[in-house]
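In this section we walk through a basic example: taking a raw amino acid sequence and producing a predicted 3D structure, encoded as discrete structure tokens. The instruction is simple. Fold the sequence below.
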Amino acid sequence: MANDNTQYRFRHTMGGRTFGFKNLADLMTKATPARSGDRLAGVAAETAEERAIAQMTLADVPLKLFLEDLLIPYEDDEITRLIIDEHDKGAFSVISHLTVGGFRDWLLSDLATPITLERIRLGVTPEMAAAVCKIMRNQDLILVSKKCHVKTAFRNTIGLPGHLSTRLQPNHPTDDLTGIAASILDGLMYANGDAVIGINPATDNVAQACRLMNMMDEVIQHYEIPTQSCVLTHVTNTIECIEQGAPVDLVFQSIGGTQATNDSFGFNLATLAEAREAALSLKRGTVGDNVMYFETGQGSSLSANAHHNLDQQTCEARAYAVARKFKPLLVNTVVGFIGPEYLFDGKEITRAGLEDHFCAKLLGLPMGCDVCYTNHAQADQNDMDNLMTLLAVAGCTFIMGIPGSDDIMLNYQTTSFHDAMYVRQALGLSPAPEFDQWLKHTNIFSDDQFTLNHKIPAAFETSLKRMLGDH
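The resulting token sequence is shown next.
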């Protein structure tokens, strides 16, 4: 709000009025594009005018300040310590002379090539990424994201330019194995599942996780599918599954951008390190050793009352420091899942999805997006079509594939198997190369990689008849 009080560290005068911001954290929150979560937390700009002034003020802040003026104190938060202790000064030297506004201009220029963007990754902190994101238009976020190439691998190669992968998500409200198997078959027939076949268990315990892991491993091995599986159970459960000899491909965990958020989730950085080492010891990857899968989402820190009065987009970006530490195969923001209390409508969900994808790719993460909304949000499937298309243009690593776009276990709306086919056909994008070859070998794809054969492959006929016979 307008004031003349010199206690404000950042001030901007326009038209005879002076707008003040108490500190860097306050400036960041006020500069954030409007969303319901920040209004709920009481940190949002009070008016569009104040937001615009905050963005103008933020544009003049030197990037170096984010290494000195820490938004959460070093001694209070292990994520802050991770960010500062692992900051690469050499990589930062390329951009260290820039302000936030100058960084935006540089990112949009021809100087910021894919090779150069890769070189500076470890010099960019999450707070720098969040700050520049706040002063960028949607098209800016798309253009820069498109230039950020991030490749990972386990049983196939994820993130190559010109490719779009999918997570096949065969959730079932009772974890019925036949129902899950039917969804997996359906997804494979629509060329879904190259990122991962990943199940959110309805019953979350070690025994059930092992049961689901064994079932997916049997399918992958029997049909020689070049992909990986994951049961999205708590990281400590997965460690126990490994100890019991379960066929664990990827270790999953939802992560947040503050230590207090992750404490509320029941883990810390040491837990993730232990899990990664356990998964690496299994040596189950064939073309790479990226064994971690993380999910994030704006609003998680606020919902845990662990946001330290920061805006939710900045907290979200800080989660990417956690992810980057452990070299994941996949990361995705479950962008509209937490609900309209945090992202109210289709416009806010769209903006958040583009922000998250941009910040993660800039920081060097293999970022995908669960393009989704809950049934009480002011959004519909057309909003999701728009966001999915924009993300695919921006080089998104992967999206979700769920029967009919409707997750009948988690009770939210996301993207379907045929949505992935649409965006691949519309933009000329291919699945992961190893998976693409498998699709052609099994005659799911014709020689034209964007054309389905619309006939059950011989390899699946026996299994399908058996499933139908059992019911």
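Looking at the output, two observations stand out. The chain has a mean pLDDT of 94. The CA atoms of residues 239 and 274 lie 8 Å apart. In the next section we compare this with other chains.
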